[in-house]
Amino acid sequence: MEDDADVYYVISDLHIGGDEQLEEVEFLDELLGFLERLADTEENAELVINGDAFGLWEFTTVEGMEKFDELESSYPELFEQLRRTGQNVAITLLPGNHDHELAAYDEYVDRFAEYNVDLVQDESMRRRVGDRVVHFEHGHQRDPNNRIEDWGNEHATPLGYYYNTLVTSRAGRLSDRGRYNWLKDVQAVTPTERMPIWLFSKYFYREMNPVLRYALVPFLLLFNVSVVVAVLAALDIAGIWSMPVDRTTSFLGQFGTAGTAVWFLLAINVVVTTLLVLVAVPLYFIRRDLRRTIDRFGVFETSLTVDAEGPYESAARETFEADPDVAVFCYGHTHRPTVRELDGGVLVNTGTWLKRLHRRDGIIGVLPPVFYPTYQLGTVRIADEPDGVAVEYRTIGKPSPAEEELTLTERVFTVGREPDLDIPDRTVIGDSDASDNADPLDDATAADDAAPADDVVEPDPDRSLSR
User: Fold this and answer.
1) DSSP 431-444
2) What is the structure's pLDDT at 270?
């Protein structure tokens, strides 16, 4: 293409917009600052917004082009900044699954053009960088729960569509009814199958009456110890092993009232734990038998959980093999930032600008896990340089909201366990050894041939149906 840039900046998965509380964009200032800096760059650059820029699935009270009107009226600063930035650098918007409707209505092309944004209504596209090529796609094509077979059909509704219209948008309307405005973060829970435990966690740490919570904490912390004591007590009763009760009592007695309180609490824990274990054993066998019966009848023939990495690795390998000129396979969708060399190319996932929730299970006891919040506002810079195609992963600083969003108990349990993003800052891929061929960008079917859309993937507990 004659108008290819020398440098590409790539972002994805902003998920801007939605019903009520989902309307809030917590990273808006950072996004505006990023666009302002691009507006002043002297590079021959293009900004690629690689899918799910907008949460159109999360709008349930308006339809069609009215959704653009909602976006335009809700975020005037953003659209005006897009207009200004687009006067200096090319801005290309590729639809994802959440904003698939951008490909369903041609009117969107004209409306975005008013703000200097070129809306490409295809599922993928390619750009030349020096002598090599970058393949862009959002990535929903590899996800059976969000794959859209009839691309461009305004009525296309994969499974993920129903989750977001029925669950995510509903959460946006109800979020401010809680003690804290946290329910809207359901869109940040990945994989989606973690939502029940996330809800239980937020109930325990945020919504539960504090008196009840702090009364339960000691019991839950000592649960594992109580199980051991209960087993030892059973051995003592059976005459297999004798418990050193006197020594334990003597040891705790050194601490006076505090030691007596611990002994009393431990005794209660042991009794309660023993009862729970007695009940849990038959329930376990009943649950296992029920699961086997369900499996025999084939009620659930497929899993909603799919692989978050395998299909993208396979698609990238096929793309690199089919066309050695392709140096970078760039996608989003899974919200997991990645930069990794693969079969002579680079596999890049731009991540998400949404809040990310990192599960941290308790070290002791049986307390609910804590979901630690962070922002990883990732931008990818792809440029032609003398030593090859350089891929740089950069993050825009935004402090973790843990101080405001986590209770004191949650912060204590996650001290020293804060997530750390481990991605190389810079990766360089040298020139292709492939012989000169026809320009792959002129082949309209190159992307489709290189990466078939109906890969079959195996279940993996680390994937979400709603992304």
Assistant:
1) ---PPP-S-GGG-T
2) 65
